[in-house]
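Issue 218. Parser rejects a valid record. Input:
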Amino acid sequence: MHESRIAALQAMPIFGGVRADVLEVLVDSGRTIAVEKEAFFFHEGDRAESMFVLESGEVVLLKDWAGAQHVLGRLSQGDCFGEMALLDLFPRSASVQAVTPCAALELFTASLFKLYETDLEQFALVQTNIARELSRRLRAADERAFRDRIGLHHSGADWTLLLT
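Output the parser choked on:
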């Protein structure tokens, strides 16, 4: 295993504090995938049994509404997506499409279950890190929803109240 890859993973919020030997096992049990520009990692409604750690490239998160795709956000190197699958086992809640050529590490629920069986402390750390990332995203979504509801919109560095 390349030490630089492990160090890069440890620098990502989802793997903060996770030991190198644990990351080696997770990487060895996962798979590295390449996705071409405009190709999809997965689609909304697909069965979910894994998460992805974006090692290079940029993706867009899309939600289908009334037959059209709407952008929820963008992620880049070091971000993860699909992690809800590791916690709730529901189908994918959005689609993820590559904006640029991407490389990602795919980690499977089965690998985390093996970690649970062999090293409960490190398993708990990974789960806690995932929960923190989800909480951070939920807070940001709540803020956007609140600002949309009261008519406050972002314009550059300033927030302005739109009067109607």
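Fixed in the parser; the record now loads. The chain has five helices and ten strands.
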